[in-house]
Write a structure and sequence with these properties.
Two copies of one chain form a homodimer. Chain A has about 350 residues and is α/β, with parallel strands linked by helices. Chain A has helices at about 30-40, 40-50, 60-70, 80-85, 100-115, 155-160, 185-200, 215-230, 245-260, 270-285, 300-305, 320-335; strands at about 90-95, 120-125, 145-150, 165-170, 180-185, 205-210, 235-240, 265-270, 295, 315, 345-350. Chain A binds a DNA duplex (30 and 30 nucleotides) through helix 2 and helix 4. Chains A, B: This is LacI family transcriptional regulator. Chains A, B: It holds the Pfam family LacI.
Chain lengths: ~350, ~350
DNA sequence: CCCGCGAAGTTATACGTAACACCTCGGCCG
DNA sequence: CGGCCGAGGTGTTACGTATAACTTCGCGGG
C-alpha cells in the first residue's frame, strides 16, 4: 500500500542532541518519528493529525497514524507550529490587578472563551495608577496574537503600537481610536438606577465616594450621578475622591459624616469595597445602616453579600465582559466585525438602603 | 569595513507572502531585514541583539545593528526563538480559580518573579472539586517549560505526566512523588496558634467550619485542630463540612448555634469567607461577636478587615507562595535544587475573638 | 619570510511543523 | 488503446532564529 520510505541518509549523523534544559531525558517524539514508526511520510502525519486528510489519505492509514502517535505519546511542538502558521493562539490580557475580584472574573470569562477556541490567555498586570510603567512586550512573556486591555499606561500603549497586534479595550472610552474594538458596560445607566432608587426613597443630601483613579469609567460615574441628581431640585451632592481601599473610604466617610453642616443621608460609592468602608465609618459613629444613612456599592462582588447589612449595589456582568472581549478579539483575528453595544447592568436592592430619615 | 552582502538570488521570488491573520498589513521585519539594512549578516544581528557579541563584533557594528533594529521597529519572533532554543520561557499556573483572592495573590507573586526573569505565566483554572476534568494540555494554550500547580485533577496529572515537564506543587502533600518540588505553608502551625489563642481566652466548646473539599491542606487543618484541642482536657469540638461559600457557612453555623445541647463559644473557620458566614449567622440570631461567640478566619484576605468586627485570622503569605513556586521552577529548569522549608504564617488578632462568656 | 593568532565577521544548518506541488498507479471512458 | 482522472500518497520548502564552524585579514614574533 505505502511505497515505503527509501533509505535516505539522515542529515544528523549521531542522534545525541543536547537539550537546552535538563527537563527530562526522553527527547520528545516528533511528527517525523511518528511517520517513521507508522511507515508513512511526515507530510501524511501532519495531514492526519491536522484533520485535513479527508479524501487525501485512506481511512486505514489515518487510523494507523493516529494509533502510532498515541502509542508514542506524540505531542506537537507548539513553537514549531506557531512559527509555521504565523500565529500563536495566545492573547494577552492586561488588567490592573487580578486581586481585584472584578478583573479576576473578567479573566475567568475571557479564559473560558479562549479555551473553547483553543486559545491561551496570558495575564499582565498593568500598573494603572501607580505609575510604575513597565512594558509588557519588552519582557516578552509570550508570542501573542492580540491584546485585551482594560487599563493601559501610555508607555504600554506605544509599545503595543509597534506590534500591529489587534487591541480590544474593556470598559474604556469608546472614542479611543487606539482600539480596534471596545467592550463596554452601561455604567451610566447603573448610576442612574441608583440615583432613581435613592431619590425615590426621599434622599436629598448625597455623598459620592469616588475613585481617585482618573479613568474613563469613573469619569462616567461622576458625570452620570451629577446629571441624575441635578434633574431633581433640592438635592445636594458632595464628592470625595479616595483610593479604592476599605480604610481610605472609611476615613473619608467618617470625616464627611462628622463634618460641619447637615449630614448626608445617602452615600453613593464607586465600588463595593468603598461601600464597606462607608459602612464601617457609619457603624463606628453609632449610625445605623440603612436607618440613619443609606449606602450603595458598585460591582456586586462577593463582598456585597458578605457584609451586614448586605449591600444594595449594581451588578456588573464581569465574566461577560471577558467573554465578549475575547469574542471580539477572535472576530478581529478572523476579519469579522465584533458585536457592538453596551452590556446591561442591574441594580440589586438589598439591605443597605432605606427611606431617608425624617428631618 | 564590512564585506557587503554579495548579491545572492533570493529564494522567494515575489515577496508577497499572505498572512494567516489579517493582523495588519506590515509584514514584521525579521532579523534578516535588519541585517540587510545594516549591511551585515543575519548572524551578526542575532549575536548583537542576543548580547553575545563581546569580542566577536566591533563596537561600531554593534551600535549600527542596534540602531537599525530600533529604527525598523524590529521585534524578534518569539515562536522562532522558542523553536530554536527548545524552550519557551513560559510557565503554566494551575489554580482552582483566580476569583479566590488567595490564588489571585499567588498568581501576582509568581508573575512578578517570572517577569523579572523574562518568563511569562499562563493560568489555567483547575476544576478542583467540581469534577469537570479538562486537560490543560489538550487545549494546548501555549508551549510550556514547566508547571506550577496548587490543585490538580488526576486527569490533568496524567496528561502532564506524558510531557516530562517539571512540576512544582503548591500547598499540597509534600510526600507526593509526582512533583519535583513543593512549596508549603506552615498551616498546622497557624491552626495551633488559633487554638492556643482561643484556649487562652477560656473557650472549651468549639465548632469547626471546615471545607467540604477534600484536599491535603484542609486535612492538615482538621488534624492539627483536633490535636491541639485534644491536648487540653475538657474541650469539645464539632465539625461541619461546607462549601467555601458565605451563605453555605451561614446556614451551617445557624443550625449549629440553634441546635440542641450547649452552644459552642468559638467557631474556627477554614477560611475568611466561612467566617463571614458565621458572623452573619451569629448576628441574625442576636448573638454578639465576640461577646457571645468568638469567630476566627483563615487566609487574611481583604474581606477580613472589611467586615465588622474585623476578623481574627491567620495571615498566609500568598504572594510569597507564588514567588517561591516560580523560583523553585526556575531552579529546576536550571538544574539547581529549590529552597526547602515551609513558609511561616502568623496569627492576626483583631476584633472577632474575645474571652469565653461565663457559664 | 612565514606562521600563527586574534578580531570581526560570514556561511550554513537545524529546530518541528504545515502545506504546496508533484508523483504514481489503477480504472474508466471515448 | 491512449489519455485522463482521482485516490493516496511523497518530496520539498519555508517559517525566523541561534549558533557551531569556517573565513578573511592584519599584524607581531621567531
Amino acid at each position: 500500500m505505502t511505497h515505503g520510505p527509501r533509505e535516505t541518509t539522515p542529515r544528523t549523523p549521531p542522534d545525541d542532541r543536547p537539550r537546552a534544559y535538563p527537563t527530562g531525558d526522553t527527547p520528545r517524539p516528533t511528527s517525523r518519528d511518528v511517520a517513521r514508526a507508522a511507515g508513512v511520510s511526515q507530510a501524511t502525519v501532519s495531514l492526519v493529525l491536522g484533520d485535513k486528510w479527508r479524501g487525501r489519505v485512506s481511512q486505514r492509514t489515518a487510523d494507523t497514524v493516529r494509533d502510532t502517535a498515541r502509542s508514542l505519546g506524540y505531542r506537537p511542538n507548539l513553537a514549531a507550529r506557531n512559527l509555521r502558521l504565523g500565529r500563536t493562539r495566545t492573547a494577552l490580557l492586561v488588567v490592573p490587578a487580578l486581586t481585584n475580584e472584578f478583573f479576576a472574573r473578567v479573566h475567568t470569562g475571557a479564559a473560558a472563551v479562549a479555551d473553547r477556541h483553543g486559545f491561551g490567555v496570558v495575564v499582565y498586570p498593568s500598573p494603572d495608577g501607580t505609575g510604575t510603567a513597565r512594558d509588557p512586550f519588552a519582557s516578552a512573556p509570550a508570542a501573542l496574537d492580540g491584546v485585551i486591555a482594560s487599563s493601559m499606561t501610555a508607555g504600554a500603549l506605544t509599545a503595543l503600537r509597534g506590534t500591529d497586534l489587534p487591541l480590544v479595550m474593556l470598559d474604556s472610552d469608546p472614542a479611543d481610536p487606539e482600539a480596534a474594538a471596545h467592550v463596554n458596560l452601561a455604567i451610566g445607566d447603573g448610576i442612574r438606577q441608583i440615583a432613581d432608587h435613592l431619590l425615590g426613597l426621599g434622599h436629598r443630601r448625597y455623598l459620592h465616594l469616588a475613585s481617585a483613579i482618573d479613568t474613563w469609567t469613573f469619569g462616567v460615574r461622576a458625570r452620570s450621578l451629577a446629571a441624575a441628581l441635578d434633574a431633581t431640585p433640592g438635592t445636594t451632592a458632595h464628592t470625595l475622591r479616595v483610593p479604592l481601599d476599605v480604610n481610605a473610604a472609611r476615613e473619608a466617610a467618617q470625616q464627611a459624616l462628622t463634618g460641619p453642616g447637615p449630614r448626608p443621608t445617602a452615600i453613593v460609592c464607586d465600588g463595593d469595597a468603598l461601600a464597606a468602608g462607608a459602612c464601617k465609618a457609619a457603624r463606628r459613629l453609632g449610625l445605623r445602616v440603612p436607618d440613619d444613612v443609606s449606602i450603595t456599592g458598585f460591582d456586586d462582588l462577593a463582598l456585597a453579600t458578605a457584609l451586614e447589612p448586605e449591600l444594595t449595589t449594581v451588578r456588573l456582568p464581569a465574566e461577560q465582559v471577558g467573554e465578549r472581549g475575547m469574542h471580539a478579539l477572535l472576530a478581529l483575528l478572523e476579519g469579522r466585525t465584533p458585536t457592538e453595544g453596551d452590556l446591561p447592568v442591574e441594580l440589586v436592592v438589598r439591605e443597605s438602603t432605606g427611606p431617608a430619615p425624617a428631618g
